[in-house]
Amino acid sequence: MTPWYEISNASSIASPTVLLYPDRIQHNLQRMIELTGDVNRLRPHVKTHKLAPIIAMKRAAGIHKFKVSTIAEAEMTAQAQGEDILLAHQPNGPGIARFIALMQRFPATRWATLVDDPANLQAMSAAALAAGVVLTLYVDLNVGMNRTGIIPDEAALALYRQLCRTPAVTAGGLHAYDGHLHNPDNTVLSRKVEDTFAVVWAMRDQLRAEGLPVPKLIASGTPTFALMAQHPDVEVGAGTTVLWDFGQEKVCPEHHMQNAAVLMTRIISKPAPDLLCLDLGHKAVAAEMPHPRVQLFGLEDAVATIQSEEHLVIQTPRAKDYQVGDVLYGLPRHICPTMALHSEVWAVREGQAAELWPVTARTRRISI
Question: What is the C-alpha separation between 232 and 211, in angstroms, rounded?
Fold first, then answer.
């Protein structure tokens, strides 16, 4: 029986490339909806795939809210008829004008973004006033990842109060990304989530007690979205769930997603009896993680010895069984930055690479 990931027309497909499997993507979308319990509280992240065809698949599944990291991702999602888009990356400098230009270009889309700095709040307010628009802003909270956001203490309360009285902006609520929380033991992870978000619940209650509007709380990453979805007043985000990878499977085994993205590569040299060189360098598979950065089907125990821009050398006692030109398939450790390395990917239908999909939002700029 042919393995699910192999394609019958590999001889005509250049490598390295990413193969996507729409039937598996569809499974993952339905599983995300099932784990959330209410599609209206699901806001999946576009950064994983950056593809208009997957936006169309999400919309067909009833998903109408989206989270993005860049102006290009936002524009691509709006072009694909995304109804409700959160730019989860605080705009600043020229990014403020670009975000407002998006709002003006796509007036039918509901737009929102984040703020965690009082001075930047004033800059966004001034730009919105000048453009004659109203920005919906979420105060971004730092709940322990220490990447962005403001620590949910008195300063965060003060920022939210300031937001509520600032012209040309309106309070969307609170945003808290918890990407640092992951554990394969769901009981341990649940305890971490509750401990981490106790201060967020307290902050929300305090703001509401003061009569201030807190319409929404948007939270979670892929490992925690099913747990956070158990809170009926929380809108959850998940990104990697759409395509999956072997890195997420290690920390989220209970999600039961299917791998829907596979790297196709070729052996380009056999520099020593136990070495195979593949055309799978830093420019084809994300290099921010330690090795193994790809898990090759049939060579799961191979050890990476060298990786450079266009080459990946692996050591295996089974090297003698392979020839230059042989096609190999593998799962990436982290699919999100891997997708950003490819300008186009192949959609696989009925065992063939059938449709070439441009990775539209890998660029930093589409038109705005």
Answer: 21
